[in-house]
Amino acid sequence: MEIAENIKKTIVELKVDYIEKIEVANPGYINFYLSKECLQGQIIKIIEEKEKFGELYEKKEKIMVEYSQPNTHKEFHIGHLRNVFIGSALVEVLRKAKYDVVSANYIGDTGSHIAKCLWGI
């Protein structure tokens, strides 16, 4: 909570005009509320720019986004699925911004847990 409060304090001191309100919630989440003017401005930009909205015009470097990484010897659960969605969304946002993105899903099939499994077989 202390870190979240410090972040909130810093942002409030910066007087960021597009943030209307900031709240800290347990166990340390920070909720940002954008101003109506900011949202209206972005909606107008989306309408005007259509499919070009969000694109950056200068050439960007190559970025690799590695996500998910399920353990092959455990059940795949909702936490893994969340990481798949977040990673996939991040890849799409970066591609829209004209980054050269390499998307990777590393399967965690190395390490002592695999050696123990193989030894048991």
Q: Which short descriptors sum up this protein?
A:
protein biosynthesis, ligase, alpha+beta, flat, two-stranded antiparallel sheet, aminoacyl-trna synthetase, single chain, two-stranded parallel sheet, Arg-tRNA-ligase, 121 residues, 4 helices, 4 strands, nucleotide-binding
The oligomeric state of the chains shown is single chain
Record field, number of beta strands: 4
Structural class: alpha+beta
The strand line-up of the biggest sheet is 1-2
Are there runs of 5+ residues with pLDDT below 50, and where?
Answer: none
> Total number of helical segments?
4
Q: Over the alpha carbons, how many angstroms does the gyration radius reach? A: 21 Å
Question: What is the domain tally?
Answer: 2
Main β sheet profile? 2 strands, antiparallel
Mean pLDDT over the residues: 85
Percentage of residues assigned to helices: 40-55%
Strand content: 15-25%
* N-to-C CA distance: 47 Å
Shape: flat
Order of helices and strands: HEEHEHEH
